[in-house]
Amino acid sequence: MQLAANADYVDLDTLLAVIARSPIAVPEPPLLVLPLPEGFDRVDAVILDWISAEGRRRLGRRFARM
Asked: Which percentage of the chain shows pLDDT scores above 90?
């Protein structure tokens, strides 16, 4: 798998391929669902905030926030 030529932008097919190969991706519902560790939701929210901030930083104000 190769990334797009421009390192600032990744096409959707590449993004989907990377997610599909991620060790945290679950292709089917697991038979046994264990509870998430304490504080997992807070860490998840922080990571999503970072992704959002990084996207805004890279794209600037060209796109409206949803």
From this structure: 0
